[in-house]
Amino acid sequence: MKSEIKTLEFEASQPDFWDDQDHAKEVSQKLNNLKEEVEKWESIKKEAEELLSVCKLAQKEGDETLHDEVAKK
């Protein structure tokens, strides 16, 4: 997805990009959709990494309360 974003950003940066407005709108919409999708996945990844860190800490400390909290999420 990120490579496709770069490709579309390059295309959108060309001087003649808006010469074909229908195509430009299509590319812009696709670019926005891809960026939103990547942002969602990055957010999910970040949350999963944080939960994993908390789980490891809870396991190391033997804290069942933290472990239970993570399990709820």
Any idea what the radius of gyration is?
21 Å
Bulk shape: rod-shaped
Helical fraction equals over 70%
Number of domains: 1
Q: How many individual helices?
A: 3
The class by helix and strand makeup works out as mainly alpha
Let me know the largest β-sheet.
none
- Secondary-structure element pattern, one letter each: HHH
Query: What is the terminal separation in angstroms?
Result: 27 Å
**Low-confidence stretches at least 5 residues in length (pLDDT < 50)?**
none
- Average per-residue pLDDT, rounded, comes to 90
Kindly state the number of beta strands: 0
Strand portion, in percent? under 5%
Question: What do you see in this structure?
Answer:
The chain is an all-alpha fold. The protein has one domain (2-72). The protein contains three helices and no strands. It has helices at residues 2-12, 21-61, 64-72. Helix 1 runs antiparallel to helix 2 (21-61) and helix 2 packs antiparallel against helix 3 (64-72). The protein is rod-shaped. The relative contact order is 0.10.
Which key phrases capture this entry?
single chain, 73 residues, mainly alpha
Produce the secondary structure layout.
Blueprint lengths: L1 H11 L8 H41 L2 H9 L1
Please summarize what this structure is.
The protein is an all-alpha fold and 73 residues long.
